[in-house]
Write a structure and sequence with these properties.
The complex is a heterodimer. Chain A is mainly beta. Chain A has 4 helices and 26 strands. Chain A has a 9-stranded antiparallel β-sheet, with no helix packed on it. In chain A, strand 8 and strand 9 (92-99) form a beta hairpin. The two termini of chain A are 53 Å apart. Chain B is mainly beta. In chain B, 3% of the residues lie in helices and 43% in strands. Chain B has helices spanning 87-94, 313-318; strands at residues 11-13, 22-24, 37-39, 44-49, 54-59, 82-84, 102-110, 115-122, 129-136, 139-142, 150-154, 173-181, 184-191, 198-203, 213-222, 226-229, 232-240, 243-250, 254-259, 268-276, 283-290, 297-303, 308-312, 333-334, 338-340, 345-350, 355-362, 365-375. In chain B, strands 12, 13, 14, 15, 16, 17, 18, 19, 20 and 24 form a 10-stranded mixed β-sheet that branches. Chain B has a 5-stranded antiparallel β-sheet with strand order 2-11-5-4-3, with no helix packed on it. A 4-stranded antiparallel β-sheet of chain B has the order 6-28-27-26. Chain B is globular. Classes of the chains: A mainly beta, B mainly beta. At the A-B interface, strand 4, helix 2, helix 3, helix 4 and strand 24 of A face strand 1, helix 1, strand 15, strand 16 and strand 20 of B. Strand 25 (335-339) of chain A pairs antiparallel with strand 1 of chain B, so a sheet runs across the interface.
């Protein structure tokens, strides 16, 4: 374990009413769980509490290198908070103040981009994604993210409010899900309120200035992503309407509609690599998915594999539209493999 | 020349065998997150690990203690008690974090002992840590999950999902509910990148074989006109006329019932809708309870923004599916039962037939979360509401004033 944060602290000795102060060294492990310090004797016990709290958590005591003592906590110290470490030994009680400086980025968090970035979205759009430049704090979406109309009025009950928020594992990408009850035709909320997006109108996803990152730093300014709304799209995905773009080093697929970026990235694969494997490193940009493919790979060897969960922004899948006529719905559970040569091809190279 | 694909020549690849997904947990293995809770047999506590897409089964024999002599309130005067006053602050003090960095995820009660257990999260960022805590006669203690015997089931990934180089998941999936029934757990969840409505049925004890998990796709048939996939947000399992049945609420608010016998591998279930619970609101829990007065079996459905729905199981069993032609309405419809004053309750579980435990906002301090007892079957505490009988000199038809002030230590 590396101890990367040695710093000087004042040891406050309380022995028989006499207070002495002397300098010592203390360091914290990289995972913020172990306090390493030099002590004259092995403590009888040790504990740690947040500054001002009477509740103390026990620290496990272990010998460390260079005659040091390691005090190990079950819980990592949180940067920016002040703690008191209390060491009890035969010579008495010592209280050591400990604090890890909080590394605050010089700039406030920001929304890097929204996905889809299309200027026109179908009226039955199911979800969008907000990409932040750093991990954001959980537990605040319902208060700080909303849909507004072109007059700036918040559209009530437009977004689904679950007890759990849908963040990517690094908490930099937020899924903003429209209330499916308002999108599904014939369901109560849809009948009562209609879909939240109206064709021919303009709306925005608004993320207000108080939305903060995991270090509690707020955006500082309100972010709005404006888009126009077109007619609802209730068509099953149709690969025959896609276009393959060929270039010297890449293969791209241009879709006939706005696709869900992360559905495409996780559910579309290009088959035909060495030993029949998949090509890696796909990127989704401006509504197009692209794989790097060496120039010497012939088109005849390439196929795309569509996962059954592939969706466009309105939740339409390869098997059926989002709303399918009753009793015609089918479980979409099989992959589909399509030779690229069977799709519309354009490009500079005829591979 | 544009060539149209001949889909008859498409190669359709069968659904791949599910990846081996269960194992006895490695010594000291702990979840990445602690969410939905459910008790199983033999002191087993199931914990949904949403961040890692797993379900842990912990043996909590060593951490549960009999709570039968802990007074939960006084039923005669409709008074419960505050079990833990500042729940987030109390947890935070023990895990060395401020209250604002503690999020309560769920509460469950061990039936045999009445032991209350909470799941929570410490921290706001991606490095947040899971917390499991017991409340022993009002004293909250953090459970060291690394010391518990456990087994783990990893939820199977969607077919054909790509992953990062070392198999890390790139997508988000939230386990919304777990229910145990006769050797199986039923796991519902919501995906952040697809409108996935898969309900998983997993044999317990976890066997580590692909056959241990079956997947059912849940669909919502709307008035015989359209149908859509329907992720389940809250669910419970009960016997309706002797038939084990899943009672569930979808994200789009319908209440449905599905016989467990219909939930077979590969099935696409069009559940019968028996109520629509109203817009502008999300369901939180479906809590089964026994009415202590008439011993009837019921469920209480709690919501984010409205009163709860108290419905008898007999009514759920007897309800006709909602008719095709439903008049436009601005609120609930169908079998919605009686309202219960539990708006503001964030999580709830039954302790016994007389008392529930709730996680809710302090009525006098919206920044503080309390753990309280709540009297069943009314789910009403006079101290939390403006009740006429609370005023000095007001009529006392129920004889509250013959009792001394409630003083519980």
């Amino acid at each position: 374990m590396r101890y990367l944060l040695p710093f000087m602290v004042q040891l406050i000795l309380i022995v028989g009413g006499t207070i002495q102060a002397s300098a010592g060294t203390l360091s914290i492990s990289e995972d913020n769980r172990t306090i390493l310090l030099e002590l004259e004797e092995v403590p009888l016990s040790a504990g740690i509490s947040q500054r001002g709290s009477s509740i103390e958590a026990e620290l496990r005591i272990e010998p460390a290198q260079d005659a040091q003592i390691a005090l190990i906590s079950n819980w990592p110290l949180i940067r920016g908070l002040e703690y008191d470490v209390r060491i009890r030994s035969t010579s008495g009680l010592r209280t050591i103040p400990v604090a890890l400086p909080q590394a605050v980025p010089p700039t406030p968090p920001s929304v890097q981009r929204m996905s889809p970035a299309a200027e026109v979205l179908p009226a039955n759009t199911l979800r969008l994604y907000a990409h932040f430049d750093r991990p954001m704090a959980r537990g605040q979406v319902v208060d700080h993210v909303r849909l507004i109309d072109q007059e700036g009025n918040a559209i009530s009950d437009a977004l689904l409010n679950l007890g759990v928020e849908m963040w990517s594992p690094d908490q930099q990408r937020l899924t903003i899900l429209f209330d499916p009850g308002r999108l599904k035709r014939g369901v109560g909320p849809n009948l009562a309120l209609g879909a939240p997006l109206v064709p021919g109108h303009r709306f925005a996803i608004e993320i207000d200035a108080d939305m903060h990152d995991a270090l509690n730093r707020p955006l500082g300014s309100t972010f709005r992503h404006w888009f126009d709304v077109g007619e609802a799209d209730r068509r099953a995905l149709s690969p025959s309407d896609w276009t393959v773009l060929l270039s010297e080093n890449t293969i791209s697929i241009v879709f006939d509609r706005t696709m869900d970026e992360y559905s495409a990235l996780s559910m579309l694969r290009l088959l035909g690599g060495e030993d029949g494997g998949f090509f890696i490193g796909s990127v989704f940009q401006h509504g197009v998915i692209t794989w790097p493919v060496p120039a010497d790979v012939p088109l005849s060897r390439l196929s795309i594999v569509l996962g059954p969960e592939l969706e466009d922004v309105a939740g339409n899948t390869i098997c059926a539209p989002f709303d399918v006529t009753a009793t015609h719905g089918a479980r979409c559970e099989h992959q589909i493999v399509l030779p690229l040569r069977d799709l519309q091809n354009k490009g500079k190279n005829a591979r | 020349m544009r060539m149209k694909p001949n889909f008859t020549r498409m190669l359709s690849v069968s659904v791949l065998t599910l990846v081996l997904s269960s194992h006895l947990a490695d010594a000291g293995e702990t979840p990445t997150s602690a969410g939905a809770l459910e008790f199983g047999p033999d002191n087993t506590l199931f914990v949904g690990d949403t961040f890692a897409g797993r379900v842990f089964a912990f043996d909590i024999s060593e951490v549960v203690a009999d709570q039968s002599d802990y007074v939960l309130g006084r039923a005669e005067t409709f008074e419960g008690r505050v079990i833990v006053d500042d729940l987030k602050g109390t947890i935070g003090a023990q895990v060395m974090a401020p209250a604002e960095q503690i999020t309560i995820n769920d509460v469950a009660v061990h039936g045999e002992t009445g032991q209350i257990i909470l799941s929570a999260r410490r921290g706001l960022g991606p490095d947040a840590l899971p917390v499991l805590a017991t409340v022993d006669k009002g004293a909250l203690r953090i459970v060291d999950m690394a010391t518990l015997d456990s087994s783990v089931h990893t939820l199977a990934s969607p077919v054909a999902e790509t992953s990062l180089e070392f198999g890390q998941r790139t997508r988000s999936y939230a386990i919304t509910d777990i229910d145990y029934h006769e050797g199986e757990i039923f796991v519902a969840g919501v995906s952040g990148e697809s409108f996935n409505s898969t309900l998983r049925r997993i044999a317990f004890p976890f066997s580590g074989t692909p056959e241990a998990e079956t997947q059912i796709e849940i669909w919502h048939a709307v008035h015989g006109q359209w149908e859509t996939r329907a992720p389940i947000i809250a669910q419970t399992i009960a016997e309706l006329n002797g038939v084990p049945t899943l009672i569930a609420v979808y994200a789009c608010t319908p209440l449905v019932r599905i016989p467990l016998a219909d939930l077979v591998d590969g099935a696409m279930i069009r559940a019968e809708m028996i109520a629509e619970l109203g817009y502008g609101n999300s369901p939180i829990d479906i809590v089964p309870y026994t009415n202590p007065f008439d011993q009837s079996q019921n469920v209480l459905i709690t919501h984010t923004h409205r009163a709860g729905n108290q419905i008898t199981l007999s009514a759920i069993a007897a309800a006709d599916p909602m008719p095709v032609e439903v008049p436009m309405n601005f609120g609930p419809d169908g079998l919605v039962g009686a309202p219960a004053p539990v708006s503001g309750v964030q999580h709830m579980a039954m302790i016994d037939s007389n008392w529930a435990v709730v996680v809710q906002t302090d009525p006098e301090d919206s920044q503080k979360i309390q753990l309280r007892s709540l009297l069943s079957p009314f789910f009403f505490d006079r101290a939390l509401h403006m009740v006429e009988m609370n005023w000095p000199g007001s009529p006392d038809p129920y004889g509250y004033r013959q009792y001394p002030p409630l003083d519980l230590q």
